[in-house]
């Protein structure tokens, strides 16, 4: 009986910690997206290589990622935050499609 109470209290504590951590990460992510450094026209063309290097640093297909990212950045003057996703921040980057209809920008 005492073991069941202890286990229940442990699960509740872990759930509470998880909720607090999730809220903290959500606030941090919102801060990064609202920081004003992303969005259409937020970059100069000279900033594209460094931003694409950041964007493509986690992929195993580094060369194609860099090629298409720099092409997209030159057109849109914007690279989304993070290594993957977040394309809604940069509509031009998000909406540019290949001939087959897939995403052109990584």
TrEMBL record:
Domain of life: Eukaryota
Flavoprotein found in the keyword field: no
Alphabetized InterPro entries for the sequence: GASA
Record key words, sorted: Signal
Keyword Signal: yes
Signal peptide: 1-26
Family: Belongs to the GASA family.
Record protein name field: Gibberellin-regulated protein 6-like
Organism listed in the record: Juglans regia
